[in-house]
Write a structure and sequence with these properties.
homodimer; alpha+beta; Arc Repressor Mutant, subunit A; two-stranded antiparallel sheet; globular; DNA-binding
Chain lengths: ~150, ~150
DNA sequence: ATACGTCGGTTGCAAAATCAAACTCGCTAC
DNA sequence: GTAGCGAGTTTGATTTTGCAACCGACGTAT
């Protein structure tokens, strides 16, 4: 199942290999909204139906969603997120926050947090609680032969 | 510049429209590592050179990276992240964290935070400081005609 | 001065992915 | 009976991708 990816060995690349195809993350977004049926997902993402079929299958075999038959005759199916799929929520929130700031003029969806406020998401370091800034991070490449700069 | 996207109006879709093509985020990752030259980026991402050329151009016109000539003769160029590009780091960290957990057996890169620990990134609500959990978020769709479920 | 290597790309082409629209199959509602 | 729904498949045209080879302007070693 684990493919050989080109370039630097990297969890980002591995993640994109599973959920980086066109429409995949939007399908996860919709299923996360509670829209479990094929036609809803197709309408709300705008994905062509054949592409959506293909994406739902790869997401399923990647363990991100589950397909459940809810009617025998006629056969009908619905989709739901697995634990892995639910945890993609952080990725979607990060993308949404970035898109709100850099890709749209005004946000189309806001989230109310149980604290009562609209969510303003931030990334922190769990150890010290500080918000992550670019300058505070030093990467350490563990893969042999790959430094930050590249193969030797 | 702002295209008409299909499906639900959404910052996630808008963000993916700018940085969701194949190789784009990996190119941003490399430039963020300080690898500013075309050949380095090509080697370290594994992207075909012609695709990389195309991606770097769209990332440039999306305002995520800048292209700078560093030598007149012979003409040589390098790339660097803009503010928008640097802020994609949160997306990359979220993807990396997810990939570490669900897509690889062991992480290939860790980041040391200035607090001295390896980074264990988490998403929090800036208002109350609590870590974001799926159940605590209620989406409000602002776009007219689009509820969570879809167009009416 | 001739050859060789580097850098940042182009070019040409075949294979694969994408798209919109129409079609299917098994039912249920009117 | 005929209309519609749900979850896709099929069709055929259009795009995008991947790969390999090539290029031009230079620096460097022989």
């Amino acid at each position: 199942m684990r493919e050989e990816l080109p370039g630097r060995p990297c969890s980002v690349a591995a993640a994109l290999n599973l959920v980086g195809e066109k429409w995949s993350l939007l399908a996860v977004r919709e299923i996360g909204f509670g829209n479990r049926r094929f036609d809803q997902i197709a309408r709300n993402t705008g994905a062509p139906r054949d592409r959506l079929t293909a994406r739902l299958r790869t997401l399923e075999s990647a363990g991100v969603i589950e397909r459940r038959q809810y009617s025998q005759r006629p056969p009908r199916y619905e989709y739901q997120l697995t634990e892995a799929g639910r945890e993609l929520r952080t990725v979607l929130q990060a993308l949404r926050a970035w898109g709100d700031k850099w890709a749209v003029s005004s946000p189309a969806t806001v989230f109310t947090h149980s604290c009562g406020h609209d969510v303003d998401p931030a990334m922190i370091c769990r150890h010290c609680g500080a918000e992550l800034a670019a300058e505070d991070l030093t990467p350490h490449v563990l893969a042999p032969g790959w430094s930050r700069e590249g193969p030797s």
